[in-house]
Amino acid sequence: MHPAFSVVFFTTATGAGYGLLALLGVLGGFQIIPLDFWLGFIGMGLALGLIVAGLLSSTGHLGRPERAWRAFSQWRSSWLSREGVASVTTFIPAGLFGIGWVFFGSSGGWVTVAGLLTACGAVVTVCTTGMIYASLKPIAQWHSRFTLPGYLIFSAMTGSVILNALLQGFGRGSTAILAFSLLLVLLGWGWKLATWRYNDALEIPTNANTATGLAGGTVRTLEWPHTEENYLLKEMGFRIARKHSARLRQITQCVAFALPVFLLAATFTLPWPFATAASLLAAIVQFAGMLVERWLFFAEAKHTVTLYYGR
Amino acid sequence: MTCLPSQSGKKLGLVIDLDTCVGCQACVTACKEWNTGGHMAPLTDIDPYGGHVDGVWFNRVHSYEHTTEMGGRTVNFPRSCLHCETPACVTVCPTGASYKRASDGIVLIDEDKCIGCKLCSWACPYGAREFDTDVGVMKKCTLCVDRIYNDNLAEEDRVPACVAACPTSARHFGDLGDPQSAVSQLVAERGGVDLMPELGYRPTNKYLPPRAHTTRAASVAAPALEPVRAEGGFLGWVDRMLSN
Amino acid sequence: MHGSPRGANSAPSQRPLADTRAPDEGDGVDTSPDVSDSIAKTTCYMCACRCGIDVHIKDGKVRYINGNKDHPVNRGVICGKGSSGIMQHYSPARLKKPLLRTGPRGSGEFREIEWEEAFSIATERLSAIRRTDPKKLAFFTGRDQSQSLTGWWASQFGTPNFAAHGGFCSVNMAAGGLYTIGGSFWEFGEPDWDNTRYFMLFGVAEDHDSNPIKIGLGKLKARGAKVVSINPCRTGYNAIADDWVGIRPGTDGLFVFALIHELLKAGRVDLDYLLHYTNAHALVVQEQGAADDGLLVRDGDGNPLAWDRVAKRPVSATDASAKPALTGSFTIDGRRCVPVFQLIADRYLNESYAPDAVAERCGIAADTIRKIAAELAHVAFEQTIELPIAWTDWAGRRHETIKGRPVSMHAMRGISAHSNGFHTCRAIHLLQVLLGTVDVPGGFRFKPPYPRSAPPGPKPAGKTVKPMTPLDGMPLGFVCGPDDLLVDEAGTPVRIDKAYSWDAPLAAHGLMHTVIRNAWAGDPYRIDTLMMYMSNMAWNSSMNTVETIAMLTDHDGEGNYRIPFIIYSDAYYSETVPFADLVLPDTTYLERHDCISLLDRPISHADGPGDAIRHPVVEPDRDVRPFQSVLIELGARLGLPGFVDDDGSAMYRDYADYIVNHERTPGIGPLAGWRGKDGTSTGRGEANPDQLQRYIDNGGFWHHDFADDQRYYKMANRSYLDFAEQMGFIPKAEPIVFQLYSEPLQRFRLAARGHGRVLPPEGDRQRIETYMDPLPFWYMPFEEAVVDLEKYPLHALTQRPMHMYHSWGSQNAWLRQITSQNRLFVHHRTATGLGLVDDDWVWIESINGRVKGQIKLIDGANESTVWTWNAIGKRRGSWGLKDDAAESNRGFLLNHIIGDQTSADAQGKRYSNSDPVTGQAAWFDLRVRIVKCAAEEAGFTEPQFERFQQPPHFVPSPDKLTFGAEFRRAREAAE
């Protein structure tokens, strides 16, 4: 699949944003992280900013963005529509929570309820995003049990790493949250490795024989229906060389997981301001790494239409 | 509405005979020609005279070499929307632009509702949908919905453009939901198959497999020739035959 | 459905729904949009097929074109090109106005001129030629469907130098057929699709008669008849064959002789058929060294004789009551003679034609050959069919049924485009005739006006060329011996293309492919003006493109072009336009009148003759004129007889006027339908002023359906022959005798042996002796015979893709999307042996040069053969294509490396790279090797040519096409 930047950025940014939002909703709502206007303001601002930036980016993928509002109508069948509905709906408790938690400096009561609802909304939204991909049967690498948990784990992971950086930045670092984010990064790493391993060993029953109905033997492409690349090939015929892909996987492992693990571990031992710097760096580096991971998520996904083209 | 109709009255579709298709591209351009002025007009062509020409087409013909232990065959393979019974391209659509008609099973796009998110094309395993970058919406085969019921065409012309054009009669059209229909009978008789049945989209269109290198192939049970048994060999035989 | 369904696609599974009322879906879809304001029924010109089309006009534009269901050629279907006619019509490559060259030839620098200036330039030039030496005008046309006009124009002008493109197209098939059975494959005959059970296809993937063949193949498939294809490439029609035989190029003749060998040996030939319809029993003189050796024994009236084996005396070969011998040796008047059939048996029973002897050279297993021979015999003799229709033969014998042998064959380009193609074509006809399958139920059938006598008259005109004097006939015709050749006393050719000379005696279609070289070399003489129409001679219609281009632009010592003046008419800015001095812009086929005439190449069906017209269905939006009308005006301005009245005024207003009023012989004109003042005559009759309207009212064509008893055995069917005489197809209702033994060829041989009045130059004698064999034989294609086969181990072939066959596809925005780069297809095993993989760039090298292209591996090809799609490669600056178009950057033209001459013979003479009998261009003789190119050479084709300048006021081609959006806008605005 063509790794369009708009979609790569969209899923990465909203994943991190909703992860952060959910954590703020729960931890803020239950006062696990302290009340602090600027912490709250920046935290909520960052979460919502990532979400809004991601959603805006996603409209860059649309042919007719002015009609985007129509996407809220088909929630009964479409995961994309559900995502739209969930993402927008989540703004209601998130807004209330933000007002209560940040501006009124209150927690408990309706603010806690709003915080919890925000977290629920965020989780649901990330699930719908994951399901958009997980539900696509023509793409075996996505249509797997790894996709949905992957989206949830990476959302929580990036969100927690950012939250940790935020707390560290405000000098309110929490060992528990640091440990939590470190564990999530390790989980994410493991999950990604498992996903790759699963995908590499994937035996896809759909092949050129079933695609053409020509049973038995080999079916080899002789000529395409057109000489130049068409929409199908540009959108779904993206090819990445094995060598290139292996290199990018290494970069992903390094930048999205290994470096953040190292930096987060270092945060345990480093004094201020180095701990803060390490945590901030971990969040930034990981976000960049996750862009690579998401790029690969698309680039390595093979659509069945490529079977018709012998790709 | 992108939820699928609970049941469709008819299952209109095409039957494509891979045994007969010579790959002449007649159906391809007949489709282009009708539809570029039809229901989804235009079928935009970008860079039509340049090095990166890329147009919207509803029907494409590939060619393959199919090799089995019985031999090899070149197969020309027309590919277009299969008007599936459970088309995920419809259910994934967030706006209701993509829909399956309850009355005849045709999968269509309501262009005015399409936001051009392209997800439907991702959801279609068959590559049946092509995006018109100029208009910003997805386009696809309409099964010539603006021909098959068109009061402005002579009744005999109310078939999809590709079926009317096909010079080798490799394309057939009808109600595949009716087991008594001519197309259903043809599919039964010729062992028509679904494409990618394992994905569960339940395509309406069927493909009739090539007969060459199968027991269905036309053959002549000819005994080997034996030299004539006549005195004087062949010339002797000629004389004998003429004297008879 | 009301009434019985019309058209080819009318099986129950192809009809409209039983109830075509739109269901109440409620989705707002307009299921009944208005399609057209009017429908014009005319004839397609996207290729040579000439299908009937319905052009739907909406708001003055072409909305849609579909097949005419009533039309005898296509019966409602339409091919990939036909549906793309819109893009041809609205092509940005279309010329706009007459052009006069301003820059050097080949640069593309022109200025626009008015038609009046164009006419005066042309008239002045041509009239000077006509006053002095008319043959200094060479007039050659390409994909011309008006040859009865263009040929007649040349004849009235007085130049013998006329032909269309048949010489480099498929004249071997035409000549091979016409000299043997009085008909031909091409589109002049067709298998009996409804009855045949075994169809053999030689060297055809797509060709003339394209939709009829496709419709026919569909019928065979529906009936379960067996299709066997003989072709080095498994594409197109060959893809759907039940058996594909991947023969080595140029060896089809050997393969056919092996089949004949098997059939003869087994006694599986139709002796009755041979006796009734062929010259198998005619006696041939066998007196070595005599002046009549090898000629037929004739009586005093010139009738061939046979030997009555009962009466034991010579009898007329056409004596219906005789009992002719087919074998033996007889003495008449002290001269030994044998029946033709004895010679056939002697030759083909020879073990050198046994399957085992030819298998390796053909690349076909001997068992496969034996199997096919057995199948042919089985179907022909064990599955005979009999139609319960009584008919009467020429001799008055009544037959209660029509008997048929359901084996049919079709052959074209793959046979034709070799230097041994004429004899191979004759070999296939011999096979058909031995099996008794020509014009019988289930066999190969003639389309009227064929069959004609073999060969048909008349002879080519041009023996005397005088100023201001028309020729005494048409420039193209059929020679019967050396006396008919167009050569002077010294044996020098009269024609610029050397047709009907010792180089190419049976050149029935001329040799357009030699004209540029000969005119450049002044061999046999210099010309003044080369006038061409619709033929891309500076590119894909020439062999040896690079040198051809150089010859077009070459100067003599004094700064003049060696070919002094070139007039060219084309509708598009093709690669040839920039080489013209004067360009006459043509219209498209939707803007003009044409006639598809029985005098030319009709659209008949085996069940009856037909012809058709084109008429303008849209108005030209530019200053262009149909070439035929231009030619008629030019004829009038030159004062050519037949083009002016006695008072010197133009006889015809335009081509439409000519179509209606011209009479070639009294009562016979371009169109056969609705003749006579009141339009009630058919075939013969006075001109009918209302004729074109009658055609338009009938859907653009006229077609006559034969009575049941006229449909078969046309070569001997009295009812048919009477009809053919009345229609003017044949001069007299006499039987057409198939010439298994071709006496005209033997006459040339005798001349080579020194007999007769017109003798070949010494240097040509061996060649004439060898190739003018009266019985078909096989020889190695010329290039293969001379090149080092170790060095050039591969055959290289080209074919046009189906969606561009005989079309001008590259400027067509739709068709070029399907193919804008051609690959060289190489068999897997061959590629592996050369260390090549898919997508590699290679040099394709022949003895004539090298060209670079990208390869694609393939299984379905003869292993020793590489091939590519032809005429995809284009020159930068032509056809309205942008500079980055794949056609001029990655596509390649194999023509660059096909020589236009043979290697020098022992005397140092180089002949045209053509069949020695007919002059057919031997495109497919090419031998090559392929070599992987260096890494830095990959990705672009070579040789490259300078980009042409664009003509004045040429609008750059658009970056986007939204054809059809306007119709939708109009519909939606109307709602």
TrEMBL record, chain B:
It holds the Pfam family Fer4_2. Residues 12-31, 71-103, 105-134 form the 4Fe-4S ferredoxin-type domain. The lineage of its organism: Bacteria, Pseudomonadati, Pseudomonadota, Alphaproteobacteria, Hyphomicrobiales. One of its GO terms (molecular function) is 4 iron, 4 sulfur cluster binding. SUPFAM superfamilies: 4Fe-4S ferredoxins (SSF54862). PROSITE patterns: 4FE4S_FER_1, 4FE4S_FER_2. This is Fe-S-cluster-containing dehydrogenase component. It comes from Rhizobium loti (Mesorhizobium loti). Keywords: 4Fe-4S, Iron, Iron-sulfur, Metal-binding. InterPro entries: 4Fe4S_Fe-S-bd, 4Fe4S_Fe_S_CS, ET_IronSulfur_Cluster-Binding.
